[in-house]
Amino acid sequence: MVAHIIQWRLMGRTISPIEPSETMHTLQRGAINAGFIFFALAILALIAALYMFVWPTAYRFFSPSETGPLIPKFTNHLVTNNFWQTFPSVAVAIPFLFICGFVTVYFLGSKGFCTYACPYGGFFSLADKLSPWRIRVTDACNQCGHCTATCTSNVLIHAEVKQYKMVVDPGCMKCMDCVSVCPNDALYFGFGKPAVAISKSSAIRKNYSLTWAEEVLGAVVFLGSFLSVRSVYGLVPFLMALGCASVTTFLTLRTWRLLTTKELSFYRFGLKSGGKIQKAGWGFLTFSIFWVGLNAHSGWVRYHEYAGDRAFQKIQVPDELALAQTNPTPWLSPIERENALAGKKHFQTASNFGLFINGDALSKLAWFEYLSGDTEQSVKLLSQAAAHQKEQARALSLYYRGAILNRLGRYEQARTSLDEALVERQDLILARQEKGESLWQLGRKEEAISVWTDAVQRNASLALASNQLAGAERSLGKFEEAIAHEKQADQFTPDNPLYHWMIGLRLKNLGMKELAEKHFQRAIQLDPGYQVRSK
């Protein structure tokens, strides 16, 4: 990892992260990276890795917001210019390490996260059953039990090597602690039969610390905590959520025992003695209530974020049509109006009572405000969202802010916002299209034509930009160029009344009335109901 970061800093590019979760990006985006190759080889293509290999495809299939092909076009991403792109920011990485590297260790043991939270262990345990390499024993073993006492993975090593001549428990992490402490050098890491080939007819009986009722309670608490903190505020990554859920489950179960048993200890601390809670017990109870309460609050915020996002996905009106005029309300169906109001309410609740700012949720709230007719609040929220976003998300917020400012006639502010969007993403062609409109309205017509020309050169299928170019060139007496761009626009303009009406409105705003009327008439031809619509 350190070598990768150094190479990335010095040379500007390096091998993409060799990390199993990178597999998700391969099946979501088609990016074949080093993590995908590593994980595929590591588990020998076992279908056990459902989260990495199947979930991305299932999500694309069931999610209404995914409109691309089920299996994306695969591209080479073995080398990257942005090594940290798929990792959390420093502001998230620090609490991530604190929770997964300290809190889970303190409450669950030195390998608590690996044993109870990390999903990779569950996936690799299936491959481990086929592995011929494992901890084995010689005849020098005298069953002293040093190995079991040293194991931090809760494996009964002395019993397993006596029964099977090897360690078969999938919880074994091959850390070699048991090998290093054996006084007779009886343990070693060697080649032989895999665990799957060993008969388990007389399996070792294990003692469990939880009752079945506690197991069920723990599973419910773990799932609830995980769903509560996963992606809350758009910050908490998958593994961090698992760490939080593990600690929450432990605290809940230990608190339950603190309240129901007469004797309880935690490490060297006596939490309860003779049926009376001790000072350490009150301290533990206070921390537990704080931690679980924080999880519950996160769950409440996450619910409103999720509900707001679901309402956002149900808005079907095209962005281009909604942005064609200052008031987009006439284009919304009654159901979409209800979804906009419901989503607005959910996002406002999450924003007002959340502990952190979710930039993505703010940008969606801004869109709901715009659809509801409050353009000023929408512009304000998009500014706030952009201040808490980076790269593509920031570019999109600035683009929408610029587009709305154009509709409001504040063209200089719109141009500035669109320029900021293009700094973040040079390939955001829609921002160039909007910038051309700002320049045209400011009287800088040659600059507007230059920007629109650049946009069309980057993407010849931009029907609106080609129409804008045609109208601009016609107004300046460049009729041959105007005819060529109008033909190009007609080639890529969908024969859809909504699209023609949208283009007509945008051209009318620019003063290109003749070309606008052409699209208005075509929309009416396709759907006579448009005759009663306001231009």
Structure description:
It is elongated, with a radius of gyration of 31 Å. The longest helix is centred in the middle third of the chain and has 35 residues, at 279-313. With 535 residues, it is mainly α. It has 26 helices and nine strands. It folds into five domains: 2-87, no CATH class; 96-117 and 216-313, no CATH class; 119-197, Alpha-Beta Plaits, CATH 3.30.70.20; 318-457, Serine Threonine Protein Phosphatase 5, Tetratricopeptide repeat, CATH 1.25.40; 460-535, Serine Threonine Protein Phosphatase 5, Tetratricopeptide repeat (Alpha Horseshoe). The strands form four sheets. Strands 7-8-9 form a three-stranded antiparallel β-sheet. Strands 1-4 form a two-stranded antiparallel ribbon. A hairpin with a 2-residue loop joins strand 7 (264-266) and strand 8. Residues 44-49 have low confidence and may be disordered.
Assign the CATH topology of the largest domain: Serine Threonine Protein Phosphatase 5, Tetratricopeptide repeat
Number of strands: 9
Mean pLDDT: 85
Largest sheet: 3 strands, antiparallel
CATH-assigned homologous superfamily of the largest domain:
Tetratricopeptide repeat domain
Can you tell me the CATH architecture of the largest domain? Alpha Horseshoe
Catalogue the unreliable spans. 44-49
Q: If helices are DSSP runs of H or I spanning 4 or more residues, what is the number of helices?
A: 26
- Taking the alpha carbons of the first and last residues, their distance comes to 59 Å
Structural class: mainly alpha
- The rounded Rg comes to 31 Å
Query: What proportion strand?
Result: 5-15%
Text of the CATH class of the largest domain: Mainly Alpha
> Level of helix content?
55-70%
Q: Please state the overall shape, judged from the principal axes of the Cα atoms.
A: elongated
Q: Main sheet: which strands, in order across?
A: 7-8-9
Number of domains: 5
